[in-house]
Structures are given as C-alpha cells and as structure tokens.
Design brief:
CATH architecture: 2-Layer Sandwich
Number of domains: 1
Order of helices and strands: EEEHHHEHEHHHHH
CATH superfamily: Ribonuclease H-like superfamily/Ribonuclease H
CATH class: Alpha Beta
Distance between the termini: 17 Å
Number of helices: 9
Shape: globular
Helix content: 40-55%
Strand order of the largest sheet: 3-2-1-4-5
Length: about 210
C-alpha cells in the first residue's frame, strides 16, 4: 500500500514536557512497508530520572524497570538511526517528535526523518464524525485490537500503525489511488477538514494524468 516506508513512533515518558525536564521511559518504532509492519525497534530506556507514581499506575512501567534498562545514550542514537530518513508518524505526532528531538539534542544526534505524519490529525480529516479520536477509543470503533497493554509503547505504536493502514486503505478505495505516497499524508495534515474531499479529488486526477 505505502509506496515508501513510514516509521510509526510511540514514547512513554515521565510527563508532558521535555523543556520541563521530563524524559522518555520506553520507545517503540515500527517500520511499515507496503501494507504491513516489517521491522521493530522497542526498548525501555534509563534516562536517570524518577518515574512518578501516576505514570507507573498508567503504564505499568516501574522505577526498577527503567533503572535496569539500557541508557538513553545507547537507545536514542540507535532509534534515530533506525528511523533514518523515512517519514515519521505518531498519534499526536507533535508530542513524540518534540521528545525525539530533545533527546537527540542532548546527545548531539540530529534527527533525519523526511516528514511527519500525525495519525490523529489524519483520522479527524479522513474519518470525520467519530465520537472520539483518542487512540484506544478510535481503534475499538474501527475493530483494531491491542495485542498488548494500552499505554505501553509497542502496543500503542502497533495500534497506531494499523490505524494508518486503515486510513490508507480508505483513501485508496475512495479515490482509486493504487498506492499511497507518504507525502500525501504529510500534505493532508495541513489541509482543512472541509477541503479534504476537493484536495483528494484534485490529487487523484493529477496521479491519473501522471500515470
């Protein structure tokens, strides 16, 4: 389905703000090629910080788990290299990208991804009228099931990856695209919801002309 790979990213963190000192505790990056997940990079992360009790209650990630995990100095460069110059995706992508860039800056390891796709924004534009666009609730309505615990990085990333594939299949069927260029998702993130159908009609016509 996808003409070039997309890497779906999910972090678990100690809080909401890297600027406020919050750090990552777990990472999952899943490479989607064609119509399936083909490669994974998953790890707990030791950033040398305290895990708040409410985070442990939400995620199940304990202080002992992160204390025994590989250090950020090992995990973050390997993660950035895993992503490479592929398009990066996440559900509420601004959150995950800001942590990725912050962690990379601390280690002098620059990100190289070629674009960012937010599956949350895409779902609002392509699947309008849903009662909720929270990952878990949207997944349940679409029949996408968790293979692990919600609010753990790999389980959330896997569900978000299947959501992205669902959106791709929806667009492919509605507009006869015969494959999705990841740059289309990047562009759709910037299109107002009311203008999506007109944008897609023009895009599909241009694709047919080029073909």
């Amino acid at each position: 389905m996808f003409e070039r790979p997309i890497v779906m990213l999910d972090f678990e963190t100690t809080g909401l703000s890297p600027e406020g000192g919050d750090r990552i505790t777990e990472v999952a990056a899943l490479r989607i090629a064609g119509g399936q997940i083909v490669e994974r990079y998953v790890s707990l992360v030791n950033c040398g910080v305290r895990v708040p009790s409410f985070i442990t209650q939400l995620t199940g990630i304990t202080q002992a788990m992160v204390d025994g995990a590989p250090p950020a100095a090992e995990i973050v460069p390997a993660l950035i290299d895993f992503i490479g110059d592929d398009v990066l995706a996440a559900h509420n992508a601004s959150f995950d990208e800001k942590f990725l860039k912050a962690e990379g800056r601390m280690l002098g390891h620059d990100c190289r991804h070629s674009g960012v796709v937010c599956s949350l924004k895409l779902a609002r534009r392509v699947l309008p009228g849903q009662p909720s666009y929270k990952l878990g609730e949207l997944a349940r309505r679409l029949g996408i099931t968790f293979s692990g615990r919600a609010h753990r990085a790999e389980a959330d990333a896997e569900v978000a990856a299947h959501l992205l594939l669902h959106i791709g299949r929806h667009l492919d069927g509605a507009y006869a695209l015969q494959g999705i260029d990841p740059d289309l998702f990047v562009a759709l993130n910037r299109v107002a919801a009311a203008k999506v159908d007109a944008f897609m009609g023009t895009y599909a016509a241009q694709r047919r002309t080029a073909a």
